Amino acid sequence: MVMTFVFSLLLLLVGPAICGGTFSDLFQPYWAPQNVAVDDDADQTKLSLDASSGCGFESKKKYLFGLASMQIKLVEGDSAGTVTAFYMSSDGPNHDELDFEFLGNVSGEPYLVQTNVYVNGTGNREQRHTLWFDPTQDFHTYSLFWNRRCVLFLVDGIPIRAFVSKEVSGIPYPRSQPMGVRASVWNADDWATQGGRVKTDWSHAPFVSTFRSFQIDACDLLEDGSGTEVVTRCTESGQFWWDKPEFDGLDRHRNRQLRRVQRKHLVYDYCRDKLRFSDQLPRECVA
Ligand SMILES: *[C@@H]1O[C@H](CO)[C@@H](O)[C@H](O)[C@H]1NC(C)=O
Ligand SMILES: *[C@@H]1O[C@H](CO)[C@@H](O)[C@H](O)[C@H]1NC(C)=O
């Protein structure tokens, strides 16, 4: 079981791009295309934030379960006030969303990785981690794994967060809304860096993050794909590798990795924020 999981992920994360594609095969800009620099030949797409705008790209298709992965090299030097995001999101008011948000910092100070899960329009499920490397010096692989039982946030194949379904206890879990895969760079200096105390220094613009090695191995909706029969195709059990029992959760090895990361790198967990949730912690934290 351990081997299968490790093997599958290795294949997907470091192997040849068996389910990858060029940027243009998979994605298109959705915000400020003038700030999205695509170079398919070099397998490299750069997103720039300047005083006029941030920018972003999204997958051409929507997906229901699977794995989405890309390598990112984050804004170097002074990145204070900026956020680089890699996420999946559905559309509409009661949307589901799975977020990686990389919170920039002044030169020499560490980035934080914020993750969040929205279900049916409600988020407020933030965790924050430090990283065990400088994410501005090299490309690293960030992945979102998603099936009916759990969502995993992975950094270089190591789980940093598991959001496990507790639907049996009546707690909402994202499993019926297809999501697009997206990335963006934007100004968030009202909150991102040191609690919003440090603002974006526009004299250091443009702020550029680079993306490559795009891989999406997920059940895609055909055509416009909102029809229920298409959703059924993706949710029918047993069809895809991520439906197999060994992907229902973390095996012992991955559980150990996760616990180690949580011990060493977790700096904020909404489930422990009694000040913020003074009345009552969110239900999934206590169930
Ligand atoms: C989603 O939220 C809306 C209200 O915003 C509610 O009416 C609906 O029942 C919720 N759906 C699920 C599946 O929880
Ligand atoms: C930025 O650096 C400061 C000082 O080291 C640290 O407290 C903070 O967590 C870092 N990250 C962000 C996003 O503010």
From TrEMBL:
Q: Which InterPro entries match?
A: Beta-glucanase-like, Beta-glucanase/XTH, Beta_glucanase, ConA-like_dom_sf, GH16_AS, XET_C, XTH
Record's superkingdom?
Eukaryota
- Any matching Pfam family: Glyco_hydro_16
MF-aspect GO terms? hydrolase activity, hydrolyzing O-glycosyl compounds; xyloglucan:xyloglucosyl transferase activity
Write out the entry's keywords from A to Z: Apoplast, Cell wall, Cell wall biogenesis/degradation, Disulfide bond, Glycoprotein, Glycosidase, Hydrolase, Secreted, Signal, Transferase
Which residues are annotated as active site? E97 (nucleophile), E101 (proton donor)
The UniProt entry's GO biological process terms, in alphabetical order, are:
cell wall biogenesis; cell wall organization; xyloglucan metabolic process
Record field: transmembrane: none
Signal sequence region = 1-19
- Location of this chain's protein in the cell: Secreted, Cell wall; Secreted, Extracellular space, Apoplast
UniProt xrefs under SUPFAM superfamilies: Concanavalin A-like lectins/glucanases
**Residues with attached carbohydrate:** N105
> What does the entry's PTM section describe?
Contains at least one intrachain disulfide bond essential for its enzymatic activity.
Q: Which PANTHER family match?
A: XYLOGLUCAN ENDOTRANSGLUCOSYLASE/HYDROLASE PROTEIN 8-RELATED (PTHR31062)
The protein's name: Xyloglucan endotransglucosylase/hydrolase
